[in-house]
Design a protein that fits this description.
Number of helices: 10
Helix content: 25-40%
Radius of gyration: 22 Å
Oligomer: single chain
Order of helices and strands: EHEEHEEHEHHHEHEHEEHHEE
Number of strands: 12
Strand content: 15-25%
């Protein structure tokens, strides 16, 4: 359905007035300005999303998973690499092509408070996409909105309320109704339950699973919660330092020799997948100055000299299991 080929994204700082004055003074004093290289959020990711699957995109904060999710949704344009949807290169789309793409691919944001327009009622929030795409007459749109609110578990009279009048779980349901308004084929859920109480998390997860089965959705679940993703996802893609370290089908989690980072993640989460690993020590890599070679080697107890010099490629070691590690042999 959607494929990424060597996608890269770097966020470069702008030059405000203060930086312009500093640059001018340095120039007047005969100094050369040192320009930061920017934050390398995604550093060459190739990945395919299969129709009808749930793909879990997992990693620590700063691993690049949310940026990758927004690239999938077309909200960020990669500076290098290519993104295809149904075989069509997104870089070749004109305005009309992008409009059609947005009907088929939608995203739920991590923070339902800041992603909801405080000036719009819940009904207007859900109806906005229908208006933009010119779908239905006024009464048809209102009926569609009522149906969507009911489908996600909100009462029909909530259409007249504003975002601040809802609880956190209700706001996330409203965000889901908005994302479903255009009947998308692919839904990207960025940390959909991270800000919610445990009991509310279970309700939202069950709702997502029910809607996925009912609508035949393809779902990308972006999360740092490894045990949660294990329950939901058909495949897990684990990111670190802007790269995918491992891609594994759920049924193989207890059978393969995992990447050292993935083993440490399971140990940190209090769970287990394959041989247990040591708890993570040290800090994630600086995205403005990532280490050479494998990005995990400064924290890895298995790192060899090759790991410090050359970044490992994501290689299929067994059917359904790919790993980016110089030290991993064939898995099965």
């Amino acid at each position: 359905m959607l494929s990424l080929e060597e996608v890269r994204k770097t966020f470069r700082p702008g030059r405000g007035l203060g930086r312009e004055l500093t640059a001018w003074l340095d120039s007047w004093r005969g100094r050369r300005e040192k320009r930061p290289g920017g934050v390398q959020a995604v550093r060459g990711v190739s990945l395919e999303i299969r129709p009808g699957e749930i793909l879990g995109l997992v990693g620590e904060s700063g691993s690049g998973k949310s940026t990758l999710g927004r690239i999938m949704a077309g909200l960020y344009r990669p500076e290098a690499g290519r993104t295809f949807f149904d075989g069509q290169d997104l870089a070749s789309l004109d305005q009309g092509g992008w409009k059609k793409f947005r009907r088929r691919v939608q995203i739920m944001f991590q923070d339902p408070v800041s992603s909801l327009n405080p000036r719009l009622t819940a009904g207007a929030v859900v109806e906005e996409g229908l208006l933009i795409h010119g779908l239905g007459r006024a009464e048809e749109r209102r009926a569609r909105v009522r149906g969507l609110l009911g489908e996600v578990g909100l009462p029909a009279d909530s259409a007249a309320r504003y975002g601040h009048e809802f609880s956190g779980g209700q706001r996330q349901r409203l965000s889901l109704a908005r994302a479903l308004a255009l009947d998308p084929e692919l839904l990207i859920a960025d940390e959909p339950v991270s800000a919610l109480d445990v009991s509310i998390q279970a309700q939202i997860i069950n709702l997502l699973m029910d809607l996925r089965q009912k609508r035949g959705l393809t779902l990308v679940l972006v999360s740092h919660d490894l045990p949660l993703v294990r329950i939901m996802a058909d495949r897990l893609a684990v990111m670190y330092g802007g790269l995918i370290m491992e891609l594994v089908e759920r049924g193989l989690l207890d059978k393969v020799d995992h990447h050292p980072y993935v083993r440490s993640l399971w140990a940190s989460a209090g769970g287990r997948a394959g041989p247990s690993g040591p708890l993570l020590e040290g800090e994630p890599p600086d995205p403005q100055n990532p280490p050479p070679g494998c990005p995990f080697h400064p924290r890895c107890r298995e790192a060899a000299e090759l790991c410090r010099r050359e970044p490992p490629a994501l290689t299929e070691l067994a059917p359904g299991f790919s790993c980016a590690c110089h030290r991993r042999p064939a898995a099965l």
